[in-house]
Amino acid sequence: MVKSKKNGMKKGAWSDDEDNKLRAYINIYGHWNWALLTKFAGVSRSGKSCRLRWVNYLRPNIKHGNFTEAEDNIIMDLHNKLGNKWSAIATNLPGRSDNEIKNRWNTHLKRQAQKEHIVLENQDDNETNKVNEANPQENIVETTNLKLLQEVEILRERSSSESPSIDRLSSHSSSSWDYAVSSDVTQQPLDYEPTTNFWTDPFISDDDNIISSSDHLFTPMDLVVDYISNGYSQDMVMANEFLWSALDLCNEPFLF
DNA sequence: AATTATTTCAACCGCTATAGA
DNA sequence: ATCTATAGCGGTTGAAATAAT
Question: What pTM was estimated for this model as a whole?
Answer without folding.
Answer: 0.64
